[in-house]
Amino acid sequence: MKSIYFRNFTSTAAMVLMSFLMIGIAFVFLGRDFIISSHRDDMEESADVVSLMVLTKFEDGVYSQENVRTILRGAEVRILLNGTSLLSGNDILVTDSDGLVVSCCDAPGTCTHIGLSVSEATISQLRAGGTLSTAGNLDGIYSSMKYIVADAIDPGGGQEPIGYVFMSSDSSSIIGAWQAFVWVFFAVALAVMFLALIMSLVASKKMAEPLDEMAAAARKFAHGDFSVRVKQDAGTDEIASLTSSFNNMADSLERSEQMRNEFIANVSHELKTPMTTIAGFADGILDGTIPHDREREYLSIISSETRRLSRLVRRMLDLSRLQSAENVTAQEQFDVSEIMLRVLVSLEGKITDRGLDVDVEIPDEPVRVLGDNDL
After folding, report:
1. CA distance 58 to 77
2. Count of alpha carbons within 13 Å of 299, Cβ hemisphere only?
3. In this predicted model, what pLDDT tens digit does every residue of 31-84 receive, in sequence order?
């Protein structure tokens, strides 16, 4: 049989596990979107910074295609792209307005992307929106899938963009950051869940202790030991109230048991006296100890003690019935007129001996009452 302690712990553990499961599922899906969104915002901000810094290299304000390509291929831009790449952890490509890759973040002589071209569809999308955020290999420029953010190098003043900055990051790095975040979450969640289960175990055990003590005390009550009490902790909760009521019940039962023992002792003493008198006098008459001329006197005493004994027994029975909560009120219907006539007949001798006149007025019809016929 499962105890209340086990059921309470099981239900609490189930609620904790269900809560963490729901939080975990929400975290997996929402956390991934948050990581990607956060990384995308950082890349867009870095691309915008690179675009502005590249524009600072055009001090003469000449934005011809030849001048643009010369400056973008210059060492200053390459140093700028390399430093930004190291700081942000992203790869950076710079193209002219036609989509031709003219510079990148790699060291001079090591970049394999210079001279390649971005598709016209991608450039058209950039011209229309000014920015780009997508996942792919940038029209075959990259050999693997990357997350790509692009920003136009816009000199302003109503002029067309002189080039574009493409910032890319391996999808694995983003997913890796998200996975690291997930592992941290699950590690913390497991620690919190373990702590919650331990606390639930202790709380359930503490809650069940008074109930176990009550059960043990009730078993002792069944064997007549009413001296057991349940330890009562300070508090006003339901368990404390139940413990207090249980101890009050135990006090009441102990007092009742003491009264019952005293009652039995008193009854035994009261019954012992007339029974001893009756037995002594009867034995004295039978064995001739009491003279024949005094037998009537002692028989009278025996008769008196017998009636006294009868009254004691009757009182004891009445008290026993009241203490046992037996129904001593109406039990059946009967004709009280008939009972009155029977009583008069049984008392006819006493009425005649005492010279009494009895005027009886009883209805002809039966008078039905509810009660104990014998009493």
Report:
1. 11
2. 8
3. 666 777 777 788 888 888 888 888 888 877 777 878 888 888 888 888 888 888
